[in-house]
Design goal:
Largest sheet: 5 strands, mixed
Number of helices: 0
Strand content: over 45%
Distance between the termini: 123 Å
Strand order of the largest sheet: 2-9-8-4-6
Length: 294
């Protein structure tokens, strides 16, 4: 009589997994009808199913044994270090600062666990993406920006997204102008505020009335002749800037202004390109201003 000899064998749908994942075992045994499996580190640890499914919760390397029996014979198959269970990948990070000003840089520290490669996405930053473990990026526009980190160990992966994580503040810049920089004693000057990204202001007007102001576009009167500077301090609460314009305002005493007729003044050539001659009878000092008063 010919005896059908039992032969035990098996395979798995995946031999490298992350902790917590399951493996489906496929029984390749022949001439066998009963089976007994042993799964070191698995859940369940034993099984009599033909094709069992086993879950591995703890990282490590584990062997699998299958005993197969037929009517007249039996066999066993042991696969040593057959299942490799990797630690679960966990993505996480932190930043050197989460509130910065336009043009500042942020250094990111990777806090991921059980990962070997990374892909970062930085909304609104330069660069926008990085595969470095601990990248440094720069933000040039104000706003709130997300940061996303994808971390993997080649098998398992995790993604961490921090919404509106980086707040980039606009930098305050102070500036101003006026319609004319030469006025008569007693005249009022309206200052036009050209500051950007500022919410409050502090003006200083030496020789003016008032001497100081917190208005956005103040009006100032100069009671005495002279040449005066103007200072503007602008802030948004987080950043500030100051603009000083030295000898900016020229105040002329009208009583010292000599009125001349057209016959008393000669200007030639007219029109002029680069050189112009001015002759005024009886005058020692002559001041010439353009149409804007400068």
């Amino acid at each position: 009589n010919v005896i059908d000899v039992a032969s035990a064998d098996f395979t798995a749908d995946n031999t490298t997994i992350s902790a917590g994942e399951s493996v489906i075992f496929t029984n390749l045994s022949v001439n066998a009808s009963t089976y007994y499996w042993t799964f070191t580190g698995g859940n369940p640890s034993t099984s009599t199913d033909v094709n069992p499914t086993v879950t591995y919760e703890t990282p490590g390397t584990y062997s699998v044994i299958l005993f197969a029996a037929g009517e007249n014979s039996s066999d066993s198959e042991t696969k040593t270090a057959y299942i490799n269970v990797l630690p679960v990948t966990s993505a996480d990070f932190e930043a050197s600062a989460t509130e910065i000003f336009v043009g500042d840089s942020v250094a990111f520290t990777n806090l991921s666990e059980n990962a070997t490669s990374f892909f970062w996405t930085f909304e609104g930053a330069i660069p926008e993406n990085s595969t470095e473990e601990n990248p440094v990026v720069t933000y040039n526009e104000p706003g709130y920006y997300d940061v996303t980190l994808f971390a993997t160990n080649g098998h398992g992966y995790d993604v961490a997204t921090k919404t509106a994580y980086i707040y980039v503040r606009a930098v305050a810049t102070a500036d101003f102008t006026i319609d004319t920089t030469t006025v008569l004693v007693g005249e009022t000057v309206v200052f036009i505020n050209l500051s950007q990204n500022a919410t409050s202001y502090y003006w200083s007007f030496p020789g003016g009335e008032p001497l100081v102001s917190q208005e956005e576009n103040p009006e100032v009167t100069y009671p005495n002749a002279g040449v005066y500077s103007v200072t503007l301090f602008a802030t948004n609460g987080a950043s500030s800037d100051m603009e000083v314009k030295e000898s900016y305002i020229t105040v002329v005493d009208e009583s010292n202004v000599l009125e001349l007729s057209a016959n008393d003044v000669a200007i030639y050539p007219n029109p002029a390109s680069s050189v112009m001659n001015v002759r005024a009878e009886g005058m020692q000092n002559i001041c010439i201003f353009d149409i804007t008063g400068k």
